[in-house]
Amino acid sequence: MNIPMKKTGLAALAGTAVLAIASPAFAQDAGVSAETQYILNSFSFLFSGALVMWMAAGFAMLESGLVRTKNVSTILLKNISLFAVAGIMYYLIGYNLMYMDVTGWIGSISLWSADDAAALAGDFSGGYSATSDWFFQMVFVATAASIVSGTVAERIKLWPFMIFVVVLTGVLYPITGSWTWGGGWLAEMGFADFAGSTIVHSVGGWAALTGAIILGARKGKYGADGSVHPMPGSNLPLATLGTFVLWLGWFGFNGGSQLAMGTGADVIAIANIYGNTSMAAAGGVVAAAILTQILYKKVDLTMALNGALAGLVSITAGPDTPTIGSAIIIGAIGGVLVVVAVPLLDKLKIDDVVGAVSVHLVAGIWGTLAVPFTNDGASFGVQLTGIVAMGAFTIVASSIVWLILKFTVGIRLSEEDEAMGSDAAELGLEAYPEFGKGSQRF
């Protein structure tokens, strides 16, 4: 099988350590058999993919902590459902649309199936098992949909949202992905997005932004005089836990995108990616905390959480080339941008419940533009071309889907259901029943 031009992997630490212990001569042996590399590369995909899958739990905890009590069960249902739907759609159409027989703009429309015949016959030149690769690519898909989930929370209907997820994960994301990781026209231009600041995060951010605009703000969020009425989330400890879970999962997201761990050079690259990823998040936290103290005379926890995520998104486009110091700066700028972008969206009366547009879209654009500062092989012109192309496509395509849903099945809860809360209106249950009916006041 041909090796797709995807992101580039991880799990070397564990695998290399085991081999080194088992055979002291291993460390001195510059040559590693093709089968050993095949095993290590496949293990990298599987282990990293498991870490990325755990990010779904992070998104669920983050979003449930930042929505009001009366909407917590619904946001949890959306997160587990969108992950399931994303995987099914990627199997049915998404993977082949993104990677198989890409002609420049789009891949093939067909059902994915594993082909490991060569490896089973002893030919390991393919580099890794087919399903390990599919699994690693699949767990990325739900991230884009999770971004949308948090933005349009508390006022969107469940089933229209899930229909949008079907289209986003099965068609829209794979098409833009084929332009880049699939070896399409942007890849040929030299567009650099190592693990998806634009391909995953900005695409999800654009889809979320169009949804928020078409859907409208939550009732009571903005006053007629332009005032903004805060609507505090239900559980900040849970939101903080979700942020830490995402931080952990991001090591698989970025580290696994090395796409190999069969050599010492791969292991060194993965280690550098892990270090840069973590320190970019650290830069984002510190920058957001300091800036909110300066601007508001108090540190905002939610801004610090989003600062961490913005740092992670910012470094995702190029975690392999910066130094630790550069990574901290890249992440810190992402944290600053979030603190600026969140109130700016409020001024524009764009209601983003969890700040996902500011984190994933704004920081995603910044991270993609930052790549040439540390990577001589990237250019600002090509990076900007990729940002604009994927943004324009996602805005137009997402808007069409949202508008079709709006004028057919409807996308917004009624005023009565929104006031009651989507948990009671759509699910008939409460996330925290012991709180009693008093929780519905908010």
UniProtKB/TrEMBL annotation:
<feature type="transmembrane region" description="Helical">
    <location>
        <begin position="194"/>
        <end position="215"/>
    </location>
</feature>
<dbReference type="GO" id="GO:0097272">
    <property type="term" value="P:ammonium homeostasis"/>
</dbReference>
<keyword id="KW-0732">Signal</keyword>
<feature type="transmembrane region" description="Helical">
    <location>
        <begin position="236"/>
        <end position="253"/>
    </location>
</feature>
<dbReference type="InterPro" id="IPR019879">
    <property type="entry name" value="Ammonium_transptr_marine"/>
</dbReference>
<feature type="transmembrane region" description="Helical">
    <location>
        <begin position="74"/>
        <end position="93"/>
    </location>
</feature>
<feature type="transmembrane region" description="Helical">
    <location>
        <begin position="353"/>
        <end position="374"/>
    </location>
</feature>
<dbReference type="InterPro" id="IPR029020">
    <property type="entry name" value="Ammonium/urea_transptr"/>
</dbReference>
<keyword id="KW-1133">Transmembrane helix</keyword>
<feature type="transmembrane region" description="Helical">
    <location>
        <begin position="273"/>
        <end position="292"/>
    </location>
</feature>
<feature type="transmembrane region" description="Helical">
    <location>
        <begin position="159"/>
        <end position="182"/>
    </location>
</feature>
<keyword id="KW-0472">Membrane</keyword>
<comment type="similarity">
    <text>Belongs to the ammonia transporter channel (TC 1.A.11.2) family.</text>
</comment>
<dbReference type="GO" id="GO:0008519">
    <property type="term" value="F:ammonium channel activity"/>
</dbReference>
<feature type="transmembrane region" description="Helical">
    <location>
        <begin position="43"/>
        <end position="62"/>
    </location>
</feature>
<feature type="transmembrane region" description="Helical">
    <location>
        <begin position="380"/>
        <end position="405"/>
    </location>
</feature>
<keyword id="KW-0812">Transmembrane</keyword>
<feature type="transmembrane region" description="Helical">
    <location>
        <begin position="134"/>
        <end position="152"/>
    </location>
</feature>
<feature type="transmembrane region" description="Helical">
    <location>
        <begin position="324"/>
        <end position="346"/>
    </location>
</feature>
<protein>
    <submittedName>
        <fullName>Ammonium transporter</fullName>
    </submittedName>
</protein>
<dbReference type="GO" id="GO:0016020">
    <property type="term" value="C:membrane"/>
</dbReference>
<keyword id="KW-0924">Ammonia transport</keyword>
<feature type="signal peptide">
    <location>
        <begin position="1"/>
        <end position="27"/>
    </location>
</feature>
<dbReference type="InterPro" id="IPR018047">
    <property type="entry name" value="Ammonium_transpt_CS"/>
</dbReference>
<dbReference type="InterPro" id="IPR024041">
    <property type="entry name" value="NH4_transpt_AmtB-like_dom"/>
</dbReference>
<dbReference type="Pfam" id="PF00909">
    <property type="entry name" value="Ammonium_transp"/>
</dbReference>
<feature type="transmembrane region" description="Helical">
    <location>
        <begin position="299"/>
        <end position="318"/>
    </location>
</feature>
<feature type="domain" description="Ammonium transporter AmtB-like">
    <location>
        <begin position="45"/>
        <end position="432"/>
    </location>
</feature>
<keyword id="KW-0813">Transport</keyword>
